[in-house]
Amino acid sequence: MAVRVEVGVAVSESFPRTLTNVGASSTYVASIEGDTSKLRFKVDPNTLRFTKRNQKMNFVVTVKGSKMKPSTINSASLVWTDGVHKVRQHFTIHKKEPEDEFRSDC
After folding, report:
1. This prediction's pTM
2. Where is the Subtilisin-like protease fibronectin type-III domain (predicted)?
3. CATH label of the domain that carries residue 47
């Protein structure tokens, strides 16, 4: 997941997501790995309890932080684990470039 933020603007973004259980019943707990000194992450709910195979559960990741500086790039990973398996999703937060307004792939 990527967040483009204008220089001088605080970071505040939410990402609704869905996790699908592909195995037996299990409980996954969320954690954040990486540099979290400038960003605050909240995962809601932070525990997912799957009771059957192919079950889908929704969660929301919220990222907040102070105003972006011109050369700032921050990254971290959301990791769901049941103690055996890990599911990882990467975040990148960087400044919005003027040409981003005109790109069709953003």
Report:
1. 0.79
2. 5-91
3. 2.60.40.2310
Pairing assessment for the beta strands 73-81 and 26-34 based on DSSP bridges? antiparallel
Distance of CA 27 to CAs 42, 49, 52, 73, Å? 18, 4, 11, 33
Number of separate domains in the chain: 1
Q: Any idea what the Cα angle at residue 68 is, between residues 105 and 3, rounded to 5°?
A: 30
Q: What is the pLDDT of residues 60-91, one digit of tens each?
A: 999 888 776 766 777 889 999 999 999 999 88
Phi then psi for residue 99, to 5 deg, are: -70, -15
Q: What is the pLDDT of residue 97?
A: 65
Reduced to 3 states (helix: H, G, I; strand: E, B; else coil), residue 103 is: coil
Domain that holds residue 38: 2-102
40 HSE (CA, 13 A, CB side): 7
As a whole number of angstroms, the distance between CA 34 and CA 92 comes to 11
Neighbours of 9 (CB within 10 A): 12
